[in-house]
Amino acid sequence: MIRPVFLLTYFVLVCAASLSHAAEQQPNVLVILSDDQGWGDLSLNGNINLSTPNIDSLARDGASFERFYVCPVCSPTRAEFLTGRYHPRGGVYSTSAGGERLNLDEMTIADTFRAAGYATAAFGKWHNGMQYPYHPNGRGFDEFYGFCSGHWGNYFSPLLEHNGQLTHGTGFCIDDFTDHAISFIESSLREEKPFFAYLPLNTPHSPMQVPDRFWQKFANADLAMHNREPQKEDLQHVRAALAMCENIDWNVGRLLQKLDELNIAESTIVVYFCDNGPNGVRWNGDMKGRKGSTDEGGVRSPLLIRWPGRIPLGRKVPQNGAAIDLLPTLADLAGIQIVSQKPLDGVSLKRPLTQADVLWPDRMIFSHWNNKVAVRTERFCLDNDGKLYELDRDPGQRQDISANHPDVTKRLRSAVKAWRDELLPGLRDDKRAFVIGHPDFRYTQIPARDGIAHGSIKRSNRFPNCSYFTNWISTDDSITWEAEVPADGTFDVEVYYACPQSDIGSTIELSFGDSRLSGKITEPHDPPIKGAEHDRVVRQESYVKDFRPLKLGTIALKEGRGTLALRALNKAGSQVMEFRLLMLTRLSE
After folding, report:
1. Are 438 and 132 contacting, i.e. CB atoms less than 8 angstroms apart?
2. CA-CA distance, 500 to 341, in Å (whole number)?
3. Other CB atoms closer than 10 Å to residue 33's CB: what's the count?
């Protein structure tokens, strides 16, 4: 006779074994992406100007790639990581004003992991589309906390969003994003779900802001290592970037410590890489170029991957890898199926990560930005000017050897032409409208960044991402967006504005098709410009203000495509207002 106690014990053991096997088949994944940090901004790679022990530990306890390639700038790298495909295939051609958006027919790495039962979240700088369904919540991420723009104007308790709803951050944003990631990891464990956590951080991208505790070490530091063109260095900018990198390292340490505390370090794959070369002239291993360049210094990134017990300790991977490889690699490591039906440009790097002496094809990896294209093989690099370099012997790209290898040069030049002919025609011919009021999402943020100013209205800065509109001095002036409303709906409208006491009283109107909504500015709001008080170096981007929401009222929008316009029906003072963004909230039908 089989006793009930034995049956219960057997059932528990079987369930535990089943759960253990499921956990084994579905490791957690934590991906950390830094912004404008170069290959040389880690002590791991020989830079003694700073110390990054926590990031370095990922290479000690896992694997590092000798050569790993990303794009020259931010949004393309993010798109290639998300899709496993070269960024022109996904319609990404710019870093602002709509050109950073990833086409809606692309499936993302978050779609793949969510389909496999993972809890998915992103914390930080998205930079692949703001309005849903371009928004992270429309691209496979259950949770999003951060900002969707390309750069942000203030890093201390700034205006952010949580799943589309505007909110304010707490403290320094990198610390804040890390806090939210830790909370998400803990909540996923409580729900007994594996997690896919993506931290696209926004430093050391300018503005150069960092907490005092990290800045103090570098404020007057003598730097031992310098760029190959030291006369071009801005030393204060370099010092600020290094301080910001040490802050990132501190936060990586917090994440790794939390994995240890939760006893999930061995069941979690941790990935660390950067989105492009350094955002300034500083030591970068003698490589040519920086952010924006298709040369080595603009596109070579560290790639560190740790998975204890699965990836050998201290493994140095000699094969080339790229951002396009991370989706197939992580899906392969996790043992899950990729949901995208489109062919990937990337390949799984599982074998070179986990096995020694792997036979590997001499594949080509292409780098593109601003109509410049370079291609790399395991041995050679053909730059945008058609010059050939042997990277093992000449990583600084100092000696053109195309005359010595005419067959290789011809083959790579032909490959570049074919790549251009396939991917680049029509890339900037963007006919996508900004999606307003999608029925599957409650909030639509419509920033000045995406608008077109008419008349006297000016941007606060030539870089659109975190700018606002000013100099609205005429009723003939307007701000417009080419928009598409995918479904009828009724929306509450808020206008984020600034206006001094002397100028209150203007009436503004929002229109789309036959729908119109007007309201009067009756409350003064004249906040000071913010940002300079935290900057370690004078910035190039716009300063910011704390704009106030004005409840304009409710508007009914009909499905269709047209021009969303903001105008002034009358001007009470010297200007109508300064404008930062519109916020539309869909009402329940």
Report:
1. yes
2. 54
3. 26
Spell out the per-residue pLDDT of the chain, length 589, in tens: 334 333 333 333 333 333 333 445 699 999 999 999 999 999 999 999 999 999 999 999 999 999 999 999 999 999 999 999 999 999 999 999 899 999 999 999 999 999 999 999 999 999 999 999 999 999 999 999 999 999 999 999 999 999 999 999 999 999 999 999 999 999 999 999 999 999 999 999 999 999 999 999 999 999 999 999 999 999 999 999 999 999 999 999 999 999 999 999 999 999 999 999 999 999 999 999 999 999 999 999 999 999 999 999 999 999 999 999 999 999 999 999 999 999 999 999 999 999 988 889 999 999 999 999 999 999 999 999 999 999 999 999 999 999 999 999 999 999 999 999 999 999 999 999 999 999 999 999 999 999 999 999 999 999 999 999 999 999 999 999 999 999 999 999 999 999 999 999 999 999 999 999 999 999 999 999 999 999 999 999 999 999 999 999 999 999 999 999 999 999 999 999 999 999 999 997 6
Cβ neighbour number for residue 134 with a 10 Å cutoff:
23
Sign of torsion over alpha carbons 350, 353, 358, 364:
positive
The predicted model scores a pTM of: 0.94
Cα 128 to Cα 79: distance, rounded to the nearest angstrom: 7
Count of residues for the chain? 589
Which strands make up the sheet holding 165-168, listed edge to edge?
A: 165-168, 159-162, 143-147, 119-125, 195-204, 28-35, 268-274, 303-306, 63-65, 315-317
The dotted CATH code for 26-194+207-221+240-265+313-353 is: 3.40.720.10
> What does R_g of the chain's alpha carbons equal in angstroms?
25
Q: What is the DSSP string of 274-323?
A: ESSS-SSS--STT-S--TT-SSHHHHEE-EEEE-TTTS-TTEEE-S-EEG
Kind and range of the H or E element at 161? strand 159-162
Q: Rounded to whole angstroms, how far apart are CA atoms 329 and 546?
A: 42
Reduced to 3 states (helix: H, G, I; strand: E, B; else coil), residue 472 is coil
Report residue 380 as tokens. Answer: 């050679």
Q: How many angstroms separate the CA atoms of 313 and 307, rounded?
A: 9
CA distance 475 to 571: 7
- Per the CB < 8 A criterion, the answer to whether 271 and 304 are in contact is yes
Strand, helix or coil at 73?
coil
- Does CATH place domain 434-586 in 3.20.20.70? no
Q: Name the DSSP class of 164.
A: T
Structural domain spans, the chain: 26-194+207-221+240-265+313-353, 372-423, 434-586
- Which are the contacts of 349, defined by CB distance < 8 A and separation ≥ 6? 317, 319, 321, 325, 329
